[in-house]
Amino acid sequence: MPAAIYLFCLTAHGRTIELDLSAPPGYGDLVQVDEGNITAVACEVPLGDFAGESAEEHLESLDWVGPRAVYHGDVVREVMDHRPVLPSRFGTLFSSKESLARFVAANYETIAGFLDRVTGHEEWGLKVLISKDKAIEYVIGAEMASHAADLASASPGIRYVKEKQFRNRAEKTVAARAHEIGRTVVSQMGSFASDLRRRATVQTDDRRGDISVAGHWAFLLPRGKAPEFVSAVNDANSRHEAAGLLFETSGPWPPYSFTPALRTEL
After folding, report:
1. What average pLDDT does the chain have?
2. Is the pTM here over 0.85, yes or no?
3. Which of 85, 97, 217, 249 has its CA 20 to 30 A from that of 187?
């Protein structure tokens, strides 16, 4: 069966990195392809696994994709423990080691500049979550508190109408208010980072009730800044949880969100 070269990541040249990982069926031993001061971490895979009719069936099967995606991530993280990395997307293939070396040479300055920029850094994620029901009740409570004197002397009918008005205003403004607070917190967290990027917001089922994702950000943090970053996020949670907002961190990750566009020979 024809073979292809599967690229996991690019890293700074150095001594061979020994990785003790169990590869999926069909994957060859990890190899390092050097081009100047850049090393590509790759292996040989059956071309038919990723291209052609059988590949379509494979890529639609979570049982097939899952272990390979996990292995891809494990290799990248293991390399990151030793050197800066530019992670490749899952399923990036080259026809030969020579074509991989040409790819690195064609993008050499971009790759080298990126590896220099992320040296000593790691990616952390921050999700801005909102409980709409809780946020609405918080805004209504604030409105009622500010009009407490008027409501106390109002008839039950007037009080009911006022409360309905408060709720209608809250339902219309709560999302904008949550995004404004989220942007403020993200800006404050940015002081810990060398760079930050907004990521695509993906809504998923949340078992905590009516929680939805209001924003998702990636931070490029210098190693050692993570404890301060997480502590600051916890402080933000303490300040805003009652208003229905929750800030959730994840990491450390390889710098996937910050990788530059490269001309790729697939």
Report:
1. 85
2. no
3. 85
